Amino acid sequence: xxEGETILYDEPGRCGGIDSHSFHYRVTKLHGSLxxxxxxxxGDERIRLSLYGKQAEVLAGLDSNGRYWLLNAxxxxxxxxxHEGEDKQATRYRQAFIDGxxxxxxxxxxxxxxxxxxxxxxxxEPVPPDSTIPQERKYC
Length: 140
Hints:
Blueprint: E1 6-11, E2 14-15, E3 19-20, E4 24-30, E5 33-40, E6 43-49, H1 55-60, H2 64-99, E7 102-106, E8 113-117
Antiparallel strand pairs: 1-4, 2-3, 4-5, 5-6, 7-8
């Protein structure tokens, strides 16, 4: 947690048909924004919550179990979306490497590199002669 951050809800792991003891959720407030802090077996994560300013009302209207399972659903949806995005990006860079389109350039300070993907060049098909333009007639 950051300095000045206030814990609004502290929801430790529980069972509810699914064993979820390894996930501990906290909702905190810092400078008017709400954050979901998650502690699980792989470490700690921080997610900014954004429900158009209605976060506090929505969470206050739930009991502890309802709040826990809502926070659990938010965390898992965010986590799955992040992993899917990482996989797509890795596939994109892998294909660019295979195609020879991955480029790099050393930055001026000598320690960092700029890396980018060159766009694919799609070969154009030859344009057939336009039948509306009269062809030159050859006489024998």
